[in-house]
Hints:
Elements: H1 3-13, E1 19-23, H2 27-36, H3 43-54, E2 63-68, H4 70-73, H5 83-89, E3 93-97, E4 101-104, E5 112-115, H6 120-129, E6 134-141, H7 150-169, E7 173-180, H8 188-208, E8 217-218, H9 235-249, E9 256-259, H10 266-282, E10 291-295, H11 297-307, H12 314-332
Parallel strand pairs: 1-2, 1-10, 2-3, 3-6, 6-7, 7-8, 8-9, 9-10
Antiparallel strand pairs: 4-5
The structure holds 2-O-methyl-1,6-di-O-phosphono-D-mannitol (5MM).
Amino acid sequence: MNRRRLAATAHALVAEGKGLLAMDESTPTCNKRFAAAGIPQTVDARRAYRELLVTTPGLGDCISGAILYDETIRQQDSHGVLMVERLVAAGIMPGIKVDTGAKPLALHPGETVTEGLDGLRDRLADYALLGARFAKWRGVIALGQGLPSMACIRANAQALARYAALCQEADIVPIVEPEVLMTGNHTLARCQAATADVLAAVFDELATQGVALDGLILKPNMVLDGLDCPEQASLESVATATIACLLEHVPAGVAGIAFLSGGQSAELASARLNAMNIQAQYAWQQLPWPLVFSFARAIQQPALDLWHGDASNRQEAQEALLHRALCNHAALRGQYDASMEDHVVPDALPFRPARLAAPGHPGL
Ligand code: 5MM
């Protein structure tokens, strides 16, 4: 393990003003999203959509890394260029989802444990050759009556730590994603308590496995009320609860924190990330890690809806993706506000969507 290289990669992933684009939907998940949008569920449609994402002009100014699925990391675009090459040319690091999904946890109805450790050492070596600089593994924790069980928390925490150790052995930065789901009618306090238990277990297992904290990124859920909870906390309350939970359970040595969106709307995810970064600026003690984003649905969904599987909507969809990236970029500085949703881009941002019209960009 090359600690210096791991730390350099991890810090580059959370470099100022940048976050991650999660585009690692497994084929069943991608097909589900396509089906909901009335898009054919074919290899060609997935290629066209992902080509649209990775060739969005200007994306590399706000996006440090893109998490890919196995199909995409091996795939060429319609011009015969590897998707990975497109990303590297745009200044975006390629990463890879390596878990093989959440499977039912024996003796624990309603709970899952994420699998994928078998053969992982060999798969990581293969992915490194294909250009992956970092990886991702997601453990899923459901809340409900009597849930989560300690069995579920520990099984997922141990799998995350064993995955992270294998990644670092291969000089690949692990993104460690323990997700407490939003599904349910639980309160914010309940989510905070469960997230605290999960983070404590994850960092305990990471320490046991000897994982280097400065060579990993944590990808947690925000602390939120359940989707069906009648009360929904304010942006400020979400930010306060999330930061308190992280400060208590995430060691200062971790390179960065990149939130998942978990089914929040694109606008709410940006607004909550923004509220956290405002509080971080005014915290009595500076936070030890940057708070960035690693969104899938909250950054992609508007683009997917506009594209609709039709090549003539490609540029509009790219504009929508870039727009979300810009909103989240602003949120990292506490400069996002709802008026940005009218496509007004503040001068403080490093570039403008007008660059989308730049002639001669590959893939346009
Ligand atoms: C929680 O899901 C991850 C983040 O996405 P959101 O921001 O939409 O919550 C996401 O990276 C997820 O792990 C991938 O989409 C892969 O999901 P599946 O279910 O296909 O393994």
